[in-house]
Design goal:
single chain; alpha/beta; eight-stranded mixed β-sheet; two-stranded antiparallel ribbon; about 45% helix; globular; disordered N terminus
Length: about 500
């Protein structure tokens, strides 16, 4: 892809411009140039034999680099993002759930609706999309979140072609059947998930890393996976990587997305190297307080998870699908606010004033298909049983997470003092899902869509339209629009300064 093609339609900086390539693009060029074989021809049998022999002797090479010296202001973290994009009069937070291409398309529809939702402030018409501050994502939703974070409005030009309308599953199978990849997969350290990383990196994310994501200047994107040993979510941002003394900057965005969507069984866990204890990391004060006081079971639990990393006993971190620990991607942000002592303290910690409006849009692509085994007296098969148990856990956990979000947000905004004019902070929670669809036939259609990386054009079209319609139906979303476009033009707040090519 040319420099001009990469630069067009996205955020203004952080990508190739005027023929100057970012470090990740140059690395991708080197990787492409270094491919050793074109047409193997008659040498294929010899190549395969040599590949198997040498692959068996291959040593593990960490995908993540060590952090030379810990700096609390270094790297991809919320505080740095807020410094570059200060809050206006609204914090707009998006959560994209798991669910394969179904989830990615539903989230894409929400972005389209936010793009086309106009608000008028001080007589100036603006897009609500430009007010998005944070996107947290899991599994299929991570493709949409990461792409928008990297490229901004370019997502509306080519994301459908590059991901939503592609048969990614078929492409992965082709990669597995490639003789070159047979040789690679003979190694203990190259597997199905590594194939996915290479495919996503090459065909979707253009070799971008987290340094590129930081420089892109878009919303702060939190991609979530699950750490098997910690039995907890694992977020791809520098505060999480501080615990293992690793530098997130050069890690491929594709690797984070692959980890976030590594469904156990279909994909193998993705592995990171822990360098804990080698960078001079200083734990925050609340860790020691939680160890000693044990007044909050939640704080104590998180402190135990953190201690698991800091002890240095775990040399490797094995990551699988984020939906295993939290299919909505909300637990991490909720946990961070709780550990800070509340919303007011979190804003103080981030060094910013609290805005008068706090809105969360949750894109929940969970489905509830009618189980066919309920029509038969025969016991469900093992595969059916495993899927059903997994669905029960996800549905129940999603419900509890949404209830926790609403209750916590209500409590936190009451603790935030009114502004100088006596106006209290207002909160909004809009849920985008299939359950809000009133037509039973239409609702059944979406509930029957599989969790896959291969949907046809009609399914993608209907999903994006459903995302838009569901957001419009939300009473809290309509209340937010009304609050941001008051009848009295004088009763407004300053807006965030526009940045980026698509602003």
């Amino acid at each position: 892809m040319s420099a001009g093609r990469v630069a067009e339609g996205g955020w203004a900086h952080g990508r190739a411009m005027n023929g100057v390539y970012t470090r990740s693009q140059m690395a991708r060029t080197r990787r492409t140039a270094a491919r050793p074989f074109g047409t193997c021809g008659a040498f294929l049998p010899v190549i395969l034999i040599m590949g198997v022999v040498f692959a068996g002797c291959a040593a593990y090479r960490p995908a993540n680099a060590p952090l030379v010296r810990w700096d609390p202001d270094y790297g991809y973290r919320p505080r740095g993002n807020l410094a570059a994009r200060p809050l206006g009069d609204v914090v707009l937070f998006l959560a994209f759930s798991g669910g394969g291409t179904r989830a990615a398309a539903l989230a894409y529809g929400v972005l389209q609706e936010l793009r086309d939702t106009r608000i008028v402030v001080n007589g100036v018409e603006k897009r609500l999309l430009d007010e998005v501050d944070v996107i947290t994502s899991v599994s299929g939703g991570s493709f949409t979140a990461a792409y928008y974070g990297l490229y901004g409005d370019r997502i509306f030009a080519d994301f459908e072609e590059r991901f939503l309308r592609r048969n990614i599953q078929s492409q992965l199978i082709k990669e597995m059947l490639s003789p070159i990849n047979w040789m690679r997969m003979a190694s203990t350290f190259f597997d199905r998930s590594e194939l996915a990383v290479r495919l996503y990196d090459r065909d979707i994310f253009d070799g971008a890393n987290f340094e590129d994501l930081q420089q892109a200047g878009g919303p702060f994107v939190q991609i979530n996976a699950t750490d098997l040993a910690a039995a907890n979510r694992f977020t791809f941002f520098q505060p999480q990587f501080d615990l293992i003394c690793s530098d997130l900057g050069e890690l491929e965005v594709a690797r984070a997305v692959a980890a976030s969507s590594a469904v156990p069984g279909l994909f193998t866990p993705l592995t990171l190297r822990s360098y804990a204890g080698e960078c001079g990391f200083v734990p925050p004060p609340w860790i020691e307080q939680a160890r000693q006081e044990r007044t909050s079971s939640r704080r104590t639990r998180v402190a135990q998870v953190v201690d698991g990393y800091l002890s240095g006993k775990r040399k490797y971190v094995h990551l699988v699908d984020g939906g295993v620990s939290d299919n909505l991607g909300l637990r991490g942000p909720l946990e961070n606010i709780t550990l800070s002592g509340g919303l007011r303290q979190r804003f103080d910690q981030l060094g910013t004033k609290h805005p008068p409006h706090i809105a969360v849009i949750v894109v929940n692509a969970e489905v509830h298909p009618e189980p066919k085994f309920s029509l038969s007296p025969a016991a469900p098969s093992l595969a059916t049983l495993i899927n059903a148990v997994s669905d029960v856990q996800i549905y129940g956990f999603n419900f509890e997470t949404l209830e926790l979000l609403r209750a916590s947000l209500d409590q936190w905004v009451r603790e935030v003092p009114p502004d100088d004019e006596g106006r209290a902070v207002q909160s909004y929670v809009a849920s985008v899902d299939f359950e809000s669809i009133t037509d039973p036939q239409e609702r059944a259609y979406f509930n029957d869509l599989p969790t896959t990386f291969n949907l046809d054009d009609e399914q993608v079209d209907r999903l994006t339209a459903a995302g838009r319609a569901s957001l419009r139906r939300s009473a809290d979303f309509q209340r937010l629009i009304g609050a941001l476009t008051p009848a009295n033009p004088q009763a407004t707040y300053p807006r965030r300064a526009a940045t980026g090519a698509c602003r």
